[in-house]
Every structure is written in C-alpha cells, then in structure tokens.
Design goal:
The protein is of the alpha+beta class. 49% of the residues lie in helices and 9% in strands. The protein has a four-stranded mixed beta sheet with strand order 1-2-7-4. The protein has a three-stranded antiparallel beta sheet with strand order 3-11-8. The chain binds protoporphyrin IX containing FE. The site of protoporphyrin IX containing FE has 26 residues, from helix 12 and helix 16. Protoporphyrin IX containing FE binds next to helix 12 and helix 16.
C-alpha cells in the first residue's frame, strides 16, 4: 500500500513539475483560460477586434489564446508590434494557410500566403515593388483613374439633381473596383452602383467567401470536411474569375500581336512584358491570374470602406469638414476634382486619411502571421514555433498610453509631425510593416485622397431625414474582408457651383 502511495505521489510530482517547467521554458504570454476543445474561440464574438482589445486590458499587450486547436498570440501595443513586425520580422512573417485558399493551389501561387522564404514570393514582391506600384507606373495610369473619378462626380451630380441620398460605401465600392480594374486591365468591372455585372459579382462573392470565419481553420482535423462549404463556394468563384481573366489575357495577347499596338500602360501589359522576356519562366498566364486575384481581393473592400469612414467622420465633425474643404478649395479651386499631383499640397487631407485609418483600420488584426521558429521577445515571453500571430492595430490605434484622447477624431494630431502609415511608426500600421507590408499602399493612398478630396470639393453633404451629425451611429462591424460602418452612410449631395 505504502509503495503504491509513494509511486502515485512521484507520478503527480513529476507531472506537475514537467507542466510548470514546460510553461516556464516556453514562457508563453499570459491569456484567458482555454476551454477544452474550443479553447477561447467563443470569446472572440462577432467583433474580434473589440473583444481582443478588452481581453488585452486584462492580460496585457501580448496574450496567448487558443482558437480551437490553434495557439494564437495577440499583440496590442506599439512596442510589441515593433518586436514582431521589425525585430523578428524574418521569423514571424509567414502566414497560416486558410483551408479555402487551397483551391487551385491558390495559396501556393498567390502573393498573400506564400511563405517569406519562397523564391516565388520574393519574386512577386519585387515585381510589385519595382514595377507595378512604383510612382512611375502609377503616374502612367493616373489618367485612367481620373476618368473614373469624373464618373463618380457625374453619378453624385445626378443624385444631387433629384435630391436623392447616395450610399457612399456603394459609390466608393464601384469607383474603387473600377480604379483597380482600370489600373490593371484598362476596363471597368462595375457599370453602375447597383449593377450585377459578372466581374463585380464574382469579386463580391470571393470577398464574402474569404472573409467568412471557417471552422476548418481552427480545427485542422476538419480541413478535409469543409464543414461550412466555404472552400466549395470559393472554388466556384475563383474558377469563374479565372475564366474571365483568361478572356481578358487572350484578348490582350491578340492585340499585342498587332503591328500598331500602343501599350495601355496598365498592369496587365507590364506583366505580359515580363512574361515575354526570354528568361522569365515564372510569370506565365497561370501565375498572372493568381497575382491579379490577390490584388482584387486585397484592394477592394479595404479601400471603399476606408473612404466611407473618412466621409462619415467628416460629416460627423462639421468643423473638420469645413477646414478640409477650405484647404482643398484653396489648393485646387472650388468645384474642381482633385488630381494625384495635388495630394502633396494637401497636408490636412492627408492627416484626415491617417486619422481615419488610425480609428477605423480596414484590416483591424492585419493579416495573420505564423511563426517559422520559436522566438523569444524582449520582455522574455516566447512565441512558439507554428503559432499564429495577430496584430490588433485597432487596439493599438486607441492605445491609451500612446494617443491623447484616443477615441477623438482629430486629424490635427498629425499636423507638423512625421508620423505616417508607411510601416515605420508602430503606433500607426494599418498597412502592416516589414517584409509583408501591403504592396498596394501607394495605390490605395492615391485612390483615397482622390475620392475624398473630390467629393468634398464638389459637393456639400446633408444627412437624410433631418438627422443631426451628432446623432449618427458610428459603430463598426466586420463585413467581408474588412471593418466597415455598421449603418451604411447615406447622404444627400448638394452641388456647390
Ligand atoms: C497585404 C492593408 C489596399 C494588396 C495587406 C496587409 C494589410 C493591408 C494590413 C497585411 C500586411 C502585413 O501582414 O503586415 C491594406 C489597406 C488598404 C489596402 C488598409 C487600403 C486602405 C490594398 C490595395 C492592394 C493591396 C489597393 C492592391 C491593389 C495587398 C496584397 C497584400 C496586402 C497583395 C499581401 C502581401 C503579402 O502577403 O506579401 N494589406 N491594403 N492592398 N495588400 Fe493591402
């Protein structure tokens, strides 16, 4: 009997010490207690950016959560973000692969999910940074965007004639998708605000499929079952999109065979030039389609939701609207559309866009990252190999110790400072930072300033049904791939001159 008690006591002590040692060896960041099987999944709720911000107030700026079976580290302060995005960027900038994106092997060809050690990823990033999104390339296609901007003004003008309210999110979506489709293919993907055009429909369905939380990503054993059918429906959409891309690429190849072919100066021509260079075996038709898919998915919701937020904040804060209008009016003349070369002369408009992205980052948790190896951080905690990492830029943008009056919309806080969204200032990284920073940043910034500057310089804006600015509902919600305004912004335009 005594021998048995002794043996059991030894076993218990052994298990306890190895548990304690196991914990302290890894020094996992603290976090809420995980339930069996589901872990902390239900603590995320419908608005993970907010519930994670609340949890960070209890557990600190670096937390461990178990989301289903997946260990996930949540970062919620500029200091910790710098550790992940700069100091240990090399080890911490792979991505977990969503189950749905294995369709057509997209995750292994698309720029968004390849590991950072992959030569293909580095090649695609070089093409984005050195060819597609350079100032020179974007300048060459700016007249196409200016044309689409004029159409936006015409649409709004039409509503101002009839006194109808306009849904700013929808108008921005149409213009944003056409900015992108023109920058890439020199054609319109959307014909009218409510149209059900093939391209726009497919892009919308892809955004829905890729934006829905998928149980298979939290319980890897379910990956083969596709429990919500997300992979299946995404598969249908991506195949349709690729058929449309095929058609556009074939048409362009035929045009390029003509003797008098003059380049369109768009991204498709740049990519076909690369693919026709003798030594480029990588950039074939298939690869072009995977890259373009990612540009559409990453660039559409993000840009249109940001524009809707910026307009909402200006209408919610009439003094800031007046100051912004005055600046644009003085720089470009009242009633004129803003051009891309005007942006540098509009510091207050730039501050408004920064302030919008601080309070309403379209990707509030950035895109998830994955640890290639275990990494010990400056504060002694370890991010274990294989863990997912989310940077809560929503929480960082409202971090009490960093920002004065964090929830106040005040573009003035950026005037006279060098704080920017380009990935060097870790209190403001709505586009991420380091190796994985958003390659579309320069285009996104041009599109946002163009649309916002023009909408406020050509129209005055009134809320529907006599609503007062302070009565607006400024709540947010995760919709599709990005953070959007819960109540769509509906406003009546009044032509200025
Ligand atoms: C990645 C934000 C517009 C293309 C990202 C990431 C963020 C982001 C947070 C992940 C960065 C990281 O992991 O550190 C935004 C915001 C936008 C915007 C806030 C607009 C306001 C665009 C546009 C395009 C684009 C217009 C292209 C046309 C991409 C691509 C990636 C990416 C391809 C994946 C890069 C990679 O994993 O290597 N974006 N984005 N984005 N974005 Fe954007």
């Amino acid at each position: 009997y005594y021998a048995l008690v002794f043996l059991l006591t030894c076993i218990i002590i052994h298990v306890l010490t190895s548990l304690i040692n196991g914990r302290s060896n890894h020094k996992l960041p603290p976090g809420p207690y995980p339930r069996p099987i589901v872990g902390n999944l239900f603590q995320l709720g419908e608005n993970p950016h907010r519930s994670l911000s609340n949890l960070a107030k209890i557990h600190g700026p670096i937390m461990t959560l178990k989301l289903g079976q997946v260990t996930t580290i949540i970062i919620s302060s500029p200091e910790m973000a710098k550790e992940v995005l700069q100091t240990h960027d090399h080890s911490l900038s792979d991505r977990p692969i969503p189950q749905s994106l294995t369709v057509l092997d997209h995750a292994y060809y698309g720029i968004g999910f390849l590991p950072n050690s992959s030569p293909l990823w580095r090649y695609l990033r070089r093409i984005c940074n050195n060819q597609l999104f350079t100032n020179k390339a974007l300048d060459a296609s700016k007249f196409l965007r200016q044309k689409k901007l004029k159409e936006l003004v015409n649409d709004v003008y039409h509503s101002s004639q009839t006194g109808e309210a306009i849904d700013i999110g929808k108008a921005a979506f149409k213009t944003g998708i056409n900015f992108l489709s023109n920058t890439i293919f020199s054609i319109d993907f959307a014909q009218s605000i409510n149209d059900a055009g093939d391209y726009k429909d497919i892009v919308v369905s892809i955004l829905k499929a890729t934006g829905s939380p998928n149980l298979a990503d939290f319980f890897p054993l379910l990956r083969f079952l596709d429990p919500q059918g997300i992979k299946r429906s995404y598969g249908i959409c991506i195949r349709k999109l690729f058929v449309l891309f095929d058609k556009l690429i074939e048409e362009r190849l035929k045009m390029r065979e003509g003797v008098n072919y003059a380049t369109n100066n768009d991204m498709l021509d740049a990519l076909l030039d690369i693919s026709q260079e003798e030594d480029s075996k990588v950039m074939d038709k298939q690869q072009i389609k995977h890259l373009l898919h990612d540009l559409f998915v990453a660039g559409t919701d993000t840009t249109s939701y940001s524009l809707e937020w910026a307009m909402a904040e200006l209408i919610h804060n009439p003094d800031i609207m007046s100051k912004a209008k005055k600046e644009v009016e003085e720089a470009v003349g009242i009633g004129n559309p803003v051009t891309e070369s005007d942006i540098a002369t509009l510091p207050y408009l730039q501050a408004i866009i920064k302030e919008t992205l601080r309070l309403h980052p379209p990707a509030p948790l950035l895109l998830p990252r994955k640890a290639k190896v275990s990494v010990e951080l400056i504060n002694g905690y370890t991010i274990p190999k294989g863990a997912n990492i989310m940077i809560n830029v929503f929480a960082i943008g409202r971090h009490q110790e960093t920002w004065e009056n964090p929830t106040l919309f005040s573009p003035d806080r950026f005037m006279g400072t060098n704080v920017d969204v380009k990935g060097k200032d870790f209190q403001l990284t709505p586009f991420g930072s380091g190796r994985r920073i958003c390659p579309g940043l320069p285009l996104a910034m041009r599109m946002l300033h163009l649309m916002l500057g023009t909408l406020i310089n050509t129209f005055d804006w009134k809320l529907e049904n006599g609503m007062k600015p302070k009565e607006m509902n400024m709540e947010d919600v995760i919709g599709g791939n990005a953070l959007r305004k819960k109540d769509p912004l509906r406003v009546i335009p009044v032509k200025i001159i």
